[in-house]
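Private note to self, pasted from the team thread so I don't lose it. Backbone tokens:
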């Protein structure tokens, strides 16, 4: 929208040159409104993508080793994750090296989190998507033990989440996972559906619609790629979208919305 306004104002005051300048200024404003301060310059996308994916695999390694050993389910999850990314052999080897680096007891992930915050911390949703990927990883063996939850809390703190915000996100992702594949998998599906959207049975229809739209916008592929999530990693967000949609459909059906 601001691109158009910029072109019109620029042309009115300065002619063709002004229209060009107005287009550039308007583009920066549009990107700021859509993606946040960190994504204003699209030329930094490649760097954000590199830091994002490095941080994902390093923290996955740290998280997998949180309970003292790496389970086969966790290994399978990472293998499946890399397969979904369509990684080349060289890139798979790099990802495995990053995973092992994070899993090493001597490796301090704090420096990597600081780098992530410096590069990605001012871009909307990147911090949340990182946490979501890690929560999904922690849930891959069907159990979220105390050591894993404690480490996730520590990651969240470094990313600027307080305990309340982290717990709400954790509940949402756990309950979204109950709708894996777009199907309800729990006997308490309706209760889970409300928690998956971050609302309650007492919420109004309008509040539920607003929460649903916010989540669907958050997981939108164009928005995520615009902020620096690598294109190959969008499939994970697509899976979350399907889970949110299934939860919302169940609530709509129960309320005749």
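Design output:
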């Amino acid at each position: 929208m601001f691109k158009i306004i910029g072109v019109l104002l620029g042309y009115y005051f300065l002619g063709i040159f002004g229209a060009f300048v107005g287009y550039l200024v308007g583009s920066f404003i549009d990107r700021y409104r859509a993606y946040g301060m960190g994504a204003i310059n699209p030329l930094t996308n490649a760097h954000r993508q590199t830091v994002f994916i490095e941080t994902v695999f390093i923290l996955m390694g740290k998280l997998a080793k949180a309970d003292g050993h790496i389970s086969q389910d966790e290994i399978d999850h990472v293998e499946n994750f890399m397969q979904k990314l369509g990684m080349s052999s060289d890139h798979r080897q790099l990802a495995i090296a990053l995973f092992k680096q994070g899993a090493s007891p001597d490796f301090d992930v704090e420096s990597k989190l600081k780098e992530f915050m410096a590069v990605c911390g001012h871009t909307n949703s990147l911090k949340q998507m990182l946490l979501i990927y890690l929560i999904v990883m922690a849930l891959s063996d069907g159990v979220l033990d105390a050591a894993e939850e404690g480490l996730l809390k520590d990651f969240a703190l470094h990313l600027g989440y307080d305990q309340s915000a982290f717990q709400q996100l954790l509940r949402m992702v756990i309950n979204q996972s109950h709708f894996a594949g777009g199907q309800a998998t729990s006997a308490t599906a309706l209760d889970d559906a409300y928690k998956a959207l971050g609302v309650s049975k007492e919420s109004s229809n309008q509040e539920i619609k607003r929460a649903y739209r916010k989540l669907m916008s958050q997981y939108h592929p164009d928005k995520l790629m615009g902020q620096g999530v690598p294109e190959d990693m969008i499939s994970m967000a697509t899976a979350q979208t399907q889970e949110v949609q299934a939860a919302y459909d169940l609530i709509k059906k129960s309320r005749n919305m």
